[in-house]
Amino acid sequence: MLRLILILTSILIAGIIGIYLVIQNQPKITLAADTGISGTVLLGPTCPVEQIPPSSQCQPKPFSIDLVLTTPDDSEVISSFKSDKDGKFSVLAAPGEYAVRTTVASNVLPYCRSSGTLKVKTGTFTTTTIYCDTGIR
């Protein structure tokens, strides 16, 4: 019995060392301070009935809300951030393709999402406008 315990303990220790070595050899992702996505979040519609010509009071309004940066298909959240009171935001991101949406990925209003895939290139900030649906019709 003691021999079995020693063998199992040796296997466990070898496994832990192996996992540690794999983790240590993973590539480190460094985000450049000049690469990411920036833009404005707008909330609308803000009036129950659209008028022609449109009323200036019913234009989409800047909006502060918690957002997440995701893979283009929304399957993985990469980072979280917030737009300010003027609707402005900026988030660092490695070069690649992304989407931006509200932290809640269900039918909770207001729901915000980028339109299409946002492509980030090295050394630049991709600029976009995120529209949030109030549900007013």
Structure notes:
This protein is of the alpha+beta class. It has a single domain, classed as Carboxypeptidase-like, regulatory domain (Immunoglobulin-like, Sandwich). The chain has one helix at residues 2-24, and strands at 36-44, 61-62, 66-70, 77-82, 88-92, 96-102, 111-113, 118-120, 125-133. Strands 1, 2, 5, 7 and 9 form a 5-stranded mixed sheet that branches. Strands 4-3-6-8 form a 4-stranded antiparallel sheet, with no helix packed on it. The longest helix has 23 residues, at 2-24. The termini are far apart. The model has no long low-confidence stretch (mean pLDDT 84).
Throw out a few tags for this protein.
elongated; 137 residues; alpha+beta; 1 helix; four-stranded antiparallel beta sheet; Immunoglobulin-like
